[in-house]
Protein backbone atom coordinates (compact mmCIF):
# COMPACT_ATOMS: atom_id res chain seq x y z
CA UNK A 1 0.00 0.00 0.00
CA UNK A 2 1.06 3.60 -0.38
CA UNK A 3 0.09 4.35 3.21
CA UNK A 4 2.77 6.49 4.78
CA UNK A 5 4.62 4.79 7.64
CA UNK A 6 5.55 8.14 9.16
CA UNK A 7 3.07 11.01 9.21
CA UNK A 8 4.38 14.55 9.33
CA UNK A 9 2.54 17.65 10.38
CA UNK A 10 3.79 21.19 10.93
CA UNK A 11 2.82 23.30 13.92
CA UNK A 12 4.63 26.54 13.11
CA UNK A 13 8.35 25.91 13.67
CA UNK A 14 7.67 22.43 15.11
CA UNK A 15 7.54 19.33 12.94
CA UNK A 16 5.49 16.50 14.45
CA UNK A 17 6.47 13.05 13.19
CA UNK A 18 4.10 10.20 14.03
CA UNK A 19 4.98 6.56 13.49
CA UNK A 20 2.08 5.05 11.57
CA UNK A 21 1.92 1.26 11.55
CA UNK A 22 -0.88 0.86 14.07
CA UNK A 23 -1.77 -2.73 13.11
CA UNK A 24 1.74 -3.88 14.05
CA UNK A 25 1.96 -1.60 17.11
CA UNK A 26 4.34 0.60 15.11
CA UNK A 27 6.93 -2.20 14.82
CA UNK A 28 10.02 -0.56 13.38
CA UNK A 29 10.53 -2.14 9.97
CA UNK A 30 13.32 -1.10 7.63
CA UNK A 31 10.89 0.77 5.34
CA UNK A 32 9.51 2.65 8.35
CA UNK A 33 12.97 3.61 9.51
CA UNK A 34 13.85 4.63 5.95
CA UNK A 35 10.92 7.06 5.94
CA UNK A 36 11.79 8.34 9.39
CA UNK A 37 15.38 9.04 8.35
CA UNK A 38 14.14 10.86 5.24
CA UNK A 39 11.92 13.07 7.38
CA UNK A 40 14.79 13.90 9.72
CA UNK A 41 17.11 14.63 6.75
CA UNK A 42 14.55 17.05 5.30
CA UNK A 43 13.98 18.65 8.71
CA UNK A 44 17.73 19.11 9.16
CA UNK A 45 17.91 21.05 5.89
CA UNK A 46 14.76 23.12 6.45
CA UNK A 47 15.60 26.29 8.39
CA UNK A 48 11.94 26.84 9.19
CA UNK A 49 11.86 23.64 11.26
CA UNK A 50 13.27 24.54 14.64
CA UNK A 51 12.30 21.46 16.68
CA UNK A 52 10.82 18.02 16.16
CA UNK A 53 8.26 16.05 18.14
CA UNK A 54 8.54 12.29 17.69
CA UNK A 55 5.60 10.14 18.73
CA UNK A 56 3.76 6.95 17.89
CA UNK A 57 0.43 8.63 18.45
CA UNK A 58 -1.99 8.29 21.31
CA UNK A 59 -1.95 4.51 21.82
CA UNK A 60 1.51 3.05 21.26
CA UNK A 61 5.01 4.40 20.68
CA UNK A 62 6.61 1.30 19.14
CA UNK A 63 6.65 -2.38 20.14
CA UNK A 64 10.19 -2.82 18.88
CA UNK A 65 12.07 -3.72 15.76
CA UNK A 66 9.96 -5.77 13.35
CA UNK A 67 10.38 -9.34 14.61
CA UNK A 68 8.83 -10.82 11.48
CA UNK A 69 11.40 -9.02 9.35
CA UNK A 70 14.27 -10.16 11.59
CA UNK A 71 13.36 -13.75 12.27
CA UNK A 72 14.98 -15.39 9.22
CA UNK A 73 17.99 -13.10 8.98
CA UNK A 74 21.40 -14.75 8.90
CA UNK A 75 24.59 -13.51 10.49
CA UNK A 76 26.08 -12.94 7.02
CA UNK A 77 23.10 -10.83 5.89
CA UNK A 78 22.89 -8.70 8.99
CA UNK A 79 26.65 -8.10 9.01
CA UNK A 80 26.90 -7.29 5.29
CA UNK A 81 24.01 -4.86 5.31
CA UNK A 82 25.21 -3.49 8.67
CA UNK A 83 21.68 -3.96 9.95
CA UNK A 84 20.57 -1.20 12.35
CA UNK A 85 23.39 1.18 11.39
CA UNK A 86 20.86 3.52 9.79
CA UNK A 87 18.99 3.77 13.09
CA UNK A 88 21.76 5.92 14.52
CA UNK A 89 21.27 8.63 11.88
CA UNK A 90 18.72 10.35 14.06
CA UNK A 91 21.37 11.01 16.66
CA UNK A 92 23.21 13.23 14.12
CA UNK A 93 20.18 15.53 13.95
CA UNK A 94 21.25 18.85 15.48
CA UNK A 95 17.86 20.34 16.38
CA UNK A 96 15.97 19.41 19.54
CA UNK A 97 13.78 16.30 19.48
CA UNK A 98 10.98 15.95 22.03
CA UNK A 99 9.62 12.42 22.32
CA UNK A 100 6.05 11.70 23.43
CA UNK A 101 5.49 8.11 24.56
CA UNK A 102 2.03 6.60 24.99
CA UNK A 103 1.70 2.86 25.54
CA UNK A 104 4.47 0.44 24.64
CA UNK A 105 8.03 1.55 23.96
CA UNK A 106 9.71 -1.85 23.86
CA UNK A 107 13.00 -3.08 22.45
CA UNK A 108 13.90 -0.89 19.49
CA UNK A 109 10.98 1.36 20.50
CA UNK A 110 12.58 2.03 23.86
CA UNK A 111 15.89 2.58 22.11
CA UNK A 112 14.32 5.06 19.69
CA UNK A 113 12.67 6.86 22.62
CA UNK A 114 16.06 7.16 24.32
CA UNK A 115 17.45 8.89 21.21
CA UNK A 116 15.09 11.81 21.89
CA UNK A 117 16.52 14.82 23.73
CA UNK A 118 13.55 15.31 26.03
CA UNK A 119 11.17 12.44 26.67
CA UNK A 120 7.59 12.95 27.84
CA UNK A 121 5.41 10.00 28.75
CA UNK A 122 1.78 9.52 29.67
CA UNK A 123 0.74 7.25 32.56
CA UNK A 124 0.08 4.48 29.98
CA UNK A 125 3.71 4.41 28.86
CA UNK A 126 5.43 1.05 29.28
CA UNK A 127 9.12 0.69 28.57
CA UNK A 128 11.32 -2.36 28.36
CA UNK A 129 14.11 -4.19 26.57
CA UNK A 130 12.55 -7.62 26.00
CA UNK A 131 15.19 -8.74 23.47
CA UNK A 132 16.52 -11.36 25.90
CA UNK A 133 13.17 -13.17 25.65
CA UNK A 134 13.75 -13.51 21.88
CA UNK A 135 17.24 -14.95 22.14
CA UNK A 136 19.03 -11.71 21.32
CA UNK A 137 20.20 -8.56 23.07
CA UNK A 138 19.38 -4.90 22.42
CA UNK A 139 21.09 -3.64 19.26
CA UNK A 140 20.37 0.09 19.03
CA UNK A 141 21.55 1.52 22.31
CA UNK A 142 19.60 -0.48 24.86
CA UNK A 143 22.71 -1.57 26.71
CA UNK A 144 24.50 1.77 26.32
CA UNK A 145 22.05 4.69 26.42
CA UNK A 146 19.95 2.96 29.05
CA UNK A 147 22.99 2.39 31.27
CA UNK A 148 24.01 6.05 30.92
CA UNK A 149 20.47 7.10 31.86
CA UNK A 150 19.65 4.79 34.76
CA UNK A 151 22.96 3.28 35.90
CA UNK A 152 24.37 -0.24 35.73
CA UNK A 153 22.27 -1.83 38.46
CA UNK A 154 18.94 -0.84 36.92
CA UNK A 155 20.07 -1.37 33.31
CA UNK A 156 21.16 -4.94 34.14
CA UNK A 157 17.81 -5.58 35.84
CA UNK A 158 15.89 -4.31 32.80
CA UNK A 159 18.07 -5.86 30.06
CA UNK A 160 18.63 -9.28 31.67
CA UNK A 161 15.06 -9.87 32.86
CA UNK A 162 13.25 -8.27 29.91
CA UNK A 163 10.63 -7.01 32.36
CA UNK A 164 8.35 -4.10 31.61
CA UNK A 165 8.92 -0.72 33.23
CA UNK A 166 5.80 1.36 33.86
CA UNK A 167 5.69 5.14 33.51
CA UNK A 168 6.10 5.99 37.21
CA UNK A 169 9.18 3.80 37.56
CA UNK A 170 10.56 5.14 34.28
CA UNK A 171 10.30 8.66 35.66
CA UNK A 172 11.75 7.72 39.04
CA UNK A 173 14.86 6.11 37.52
CA UNK A 174 15.49 8.88 34.98
CA UNK A 175 14.45 7.12 31.79
CA UNK A 176 11.92 9.84 30.98
CA UNK A 177 12.00 13.58 31.59
CA UNK A 178 8.41 14.08 32.72
CA UNK A 179 5.08 12.30 33.04
CA UNK A 180 2.18 14.19 31.48
CA UNK A 181 -1.08 13.33 33.22
CA UNK A 182 -4.17 12.76 31.10
CA UNK A 183 -4.72 10.75 27.98
CA UNK A 184 -2.38 10.23 25.06
CA UNK A 185 -3.56 13.40 23.36
CA UNK A 186 -2.35 15.54 26.21
CA UNK A 187 1.10 14.01 26.16
CA UNK A 188 1.54 14.77 22.46
CA UNK A 189 0.10 18.28 22.92
CA UNK A 190 2.50 18.94 25.79
CA UNK A 191 5.42 17.74 23.65
CA UNK A 192 4.39 20.25 20.96
CA UNK A 193 4.24 22.95 23.64
CA UNK A 194 7.70 22.11 24.95
CA UNK A 195 9.11 21.98 21.41
CA UNK A 196 7.46 25.32 20.57
CA UNK A 197 9.00 26.92 23.66
CA UNK A 198 12.48 25.71 22.67
CA UNK A 199 11.91 26.69 19.03
CA UNK A 200 11.47 30.29 20.20
CA UNK A 201 14.96 30.45 21.69
CA UNK A 202 18.07 31.24 19.69
CA UNK A 203 18.69 28.27 17.44
CA UNK A 204 22.47 28.39 17.72
CA UNK A 205 22.37 28.39 21.52
CA UNK A 206 19.87 25.51 21.48
CA UNK A 207 22.08 23.51 19.13
CA UNK A 208 25.17 24.21 21.23
CA UNK A 209 23.39 23.28 24.46
CA UNK A 210 22.25 19.99 22.92
CA UNK A 211 25.77 19.29 21.66
CA UNK A 212 27.28 20.03 25.07
CA UNK A 213 24.83 17.89 27.06
CA UNK A 214 25.32 14.97 24.66
CA UNK A 215 29.08 15.30 25.03
CA UNK A 216 28.73 14.49 28.72
CA UNK A 217 28.19 10.84 27.78
CA UNK A 218 31.20 10.65 25.49
CA UNK A 219 33.93 12.79 26.99
CA UNK A 220 35.89 12.76 30.25
CA UNK A 221 34.79 15.58 32.55
CA UNK A 222 37.72 17.90 31.82
CA UNK A 223 37.19 17.60 28.06
CA UNK A 224 33.44 18.03 28.43
CA UNK A 225 33.97 21.17 30.49
CA UNK A 226 36.41 22.49 27.92
CA UNK A 227 33.92 21.89 25.11
CA UNK A 228 31.21 23.61 27.15
CA UNK A 229 33.38 26.66 27.78
CA UNK A 230 34.44 26.91 24.12
CA UNK A 231 30.80 26.71 22.99
CA UNK A 232 29.97 29.31 25.62
CA UNK A 233 32.69 31.63 24.24
CA UNK A 234 31.32 31.08 20.74
CA UNK A 235 27.92 32.46 21.76
CA UNK A 236 29.48 35.94 21.96
CA UNK A 237 29.82 35.76 18.19
CA UNK A 238 26.07 35.38 17.72
CA UNK A 239 23.40 38.00 17.13
CA UNK A 240 21.12 36.07 19.50
CA UNK A 241 23.44 36.66 22.47
CA UNK A 242 23.42 40.41 21.77
CA UNK A 243 19.65 40.41 21.35
CA UNK A 244 18.96 38.20 24.39
CA UNK A 245 21.03 40.33 26.75
CA UNK A 246 19.92 43.66 25.26
CA UNK A 247 16.30 42.59 25.69
CA UNK A 248 16.94 41.73 29.34
CA UNK A 249 18.59 45.11 29.96
CA UNK A 250 15.75 46.93 28.19
CA UNK A 251 13.07 44.91 30.04
CA UNK A 252 11.49 43.60 26.82
CA UNK A 253 11.01 40.21 25.20
CA UNK A 254 13.89 39.08 22.97
CA UNK A 255 13.29 38.40 19.31
CA UNK A 256 15.84 35.84 18.19
CA UNK A 257 17.06 35.67 14.59
CA UNK A 258 18.88 32.34 15.03
CA UNK A 259 22.01 34.02 13.72
C1 LIG B 1 6.44 -7.33 14.55
C2 LIG B 1 4.77 -6.97 16.04
C3 LIG B 1 5.69 -6.56 17.02
C4 LIG B 1 7.07 -6.53 16.66
C5 LIG B 1 3.73 -6.46 17.87
N1 LIG B 1 3.57 -6.89 16.62
N2 LIG B 1 5.01 -6.24 18.15
N3 LIG B 1 5.14 -7.35 14.82
N4 LIG B 1 7.38 -6.93 15.41
N5 LIG B 1 8.01 -6.13 17.48
C6 LIG B 1 2.32 -7.24 15.96
C7 LIG B 1 1.79 -8.58 16.44
O1 LIG B 1 2.41 -9.63 15.78
C8 LIG B 1 0.33 -8.45 16.08
O2 LIG B 1 0.19 -8.68 14.69
C9 LIG B 1 0.03 -6.98 16.32
O3 LIG B 1 1.31 -6.32 16.29
C10 LIG B 1 -0.61 -6.73 17.66
O4 LIG B 1 0.20 -7.32 18.66
P1 LIG B 1 -0.38 -8.29 19.80
O5 LIG B 1 0.75 -9.09 20.29
O6 LIG B 1 -1.56 -9.01 19.30
O7 LIG B 1 -0.85 -7.22 20.89
P2 LIG B 1 -0.93 -7.41 22.48
O8 LIG B 1 -1.49 -8.75 22.82
O9 LIG B 1 -1.61 -6.18 22.96
O10 LIG B 1 0.58 -7.41 23.00
C11 LIG B 1 1.37 -6.24 22.87
C12 LIG B 1 2.87 -6.58 23.11
C13 LIG B 1 3.28 -7.74 22.19
C14 LIG B 1 3.06 -6.97 24.60
C15 LIG B 1 3.66 -5.33 22.84
O11 LIG B 1 2.88 -7.44 20.85
C16 LIG B 1 4.75 -7.99 22.18
O12 LIG B 1 5.30 -8.62 23.10
N6 LIG B 1 5.45 -7.56 21.09
C17 LIG B 1 6.85 -7.79 20.93
C18 LIG B 1 7.63 -6.89 21.83
C19 LIG B 1 9.13 -7.16 21.67
O13 LIG B 1 9.60 -8.26 21.94
N7 LIG B 1 9.88 -6.13 21.21
C20 LIG B 1 11.26 -6.27 21.01
C21 LIG B 1 11.48 -6.65 19.61
S1 LIG B 1 13.17 -6.99 19.34
P3 LIG B 1 -0.93 -9.70 14.11
O14 LIG B 1 -0.62 -9.72 12.64
O15 LIG B 1 -0.75 -10.99 14.81
O16 LIG B 1 -2.22 -9.00 14.43
C22 LIG B 1 13.86 -5.52 19.10
C23 LIG B 1 15.28 -5.63 18.76
C24 LIG B 1 15.91 -4.33 18.88
O17 LIG B 1 13.29 -4.50 19.17
C25 LIG B 1 17.24 -4.46 18.32
C26 LIG B 1 17.72 -3.16 17.86
C27 LIG B 1 16.71 -2.36 17.18
Give an overview in words.
With 259 residues, the chain is an alpha/beta fold. It is 43% helix and 14% strand. It contains 11 helices and 9 strands. The chain has helices at residues 30-45, 67-70, 75-80, 108-114, 145-150, 152-161, 167-172, 184-199, 203-218, 221-234, 239-249; strands at residues 6-11, 14-19, 51-55, 97-101, 104-106, 118-121, 126-128, 164-166, 178-179. The longest helix has 16 residues, at 30-45. The protein is globular. It starts with 5 loop residues before the first strand and ends in a 10-residue tail after the last helix. 37% of the residues are buried. Hexanoyl-coenzyme A binds at residues 24-25, 27, 63-68, 84, 104, 106-108, 111, 130-131, 134, 138-140.
Question: Would you summarize the structure shown here?
Answer:
With 259 residues, the chain is an alpha/beta fold. Helix content is 43%, strand content 14%.
Helix fraction by DSSP (H/I, runs of at least 4): 40-55%
Distance between the termini: 43 Å
Approximate strand percentage: 5-15%
Q: How many beta-strand runs?
A: 9
Structural class: alpha/beta
Q: Could you say which small molecules are bound to this protein?
A: hexanoyl-coenzyme A
Radius of gyration, in Å, reads 19 Å
Main beta-sheet strand count, sense and barrel state:
6 strands, mixed
Order of helices and strands: EEHEHHEEHEEHHEHEHHHH
> Would you identify the regions where 5 or more consecutive residues have pLDDT less than 50?
none
Mean pLDDT rating: 97
